[in-house]
Amino acid sequence: MKKLLKWKIEIILVFLILIGNGIASIFAEKIAIKVERQTVELHVTGVVDRVEDGEIAVIIVEELQLELYVHVTEFEVDIKPNLWVNITLSEGNIKDISVNLSKTMEEKENMKKLLELIKQ
After folding, report:
1. Which sign does the torsion angle of CA 14, 16, 19, 20 carry?
2. Could you tell me if 90 and 74 are in contact, meaning their C-beta atoms sit under 8 angstroms apart?
3. Which of 23, 57, 62, 104 is 20 to 30 A removed from 76 (C-alpha atoms)?
4. What is the structure's pLDDT at 73?
5. For 11-15, what is the mean pLDDT?
6. Distance between CA 97 and CA 44 in Å, rounded?
7. How far is CA 55 from each of CA 68, 70, 99, rounded to the nearest angstrom?
8. What pLDDT is recorded for position 90?
9. Which of these, 29, 74, 35, 32, lies nearest to 51 by C-alpha position?
C-alpha cells in the first residue's frame, strides 16, 4: 500500500514538473516575441576618417569596430576628416547622424597638444 501511494506521489510530481516546464516554455516564448517586436536603438560616437570621391564619408565607430559608409548629402554640414558625429543605429540601419562639436573640439585640442610635444 505504501509503495502504491509513493508511486502515485512520484507520478503526480513528475506530471507537475512537466506541466511547469511547459508553462515556463510558453511564457518564455511570449517574452521572446515581445522583445523581438521592440525596436532597439543604439547610440554611438564615430569619427569621419575620410571622404571618398567627394561623395562618401567613411565613419569609424571604434566601440563597434565598424566602418560606416554614408553619402555626404545625408549631413547638414560640410563633412571633413576628423569630424566627430553621434550616430543612432536601428535595426542595422543608420537612423540619425548629428555633429558632435564638443568631441570634435576636444580631439582637436588633444592633437594640438600631441603635436607640441613632438616639436619639443
Report:
1. negative
2. no
3. 62
4. 86
5. 56
6. 10
7. 13, 8, 17
8. 85
9. 74
Sign of CA dihedral 82, 83, 88, 91: negative
Grid cell, residue 41, equals 536603438
pLDDT tens profile 26-70? 444 544 545 455 677 889 999 999 999 989 999 999 988 999 999
Q: Which of 91, 88, 95 is nearest to 61 (CA)?
A: 88
Contact between residue 87 and residue 68 where contact means Cβ atoms under 8 Å apart: yes
Long-range Cβ contact pairs of 41-44 (< 8 A, separation 24 or more): 41/88, 41/89, 41/90, 41/95, 42/88, 42/89, 42/90, 43/86, 43/87, 43/88, 43/89, 44/86, 44/87, 44/89
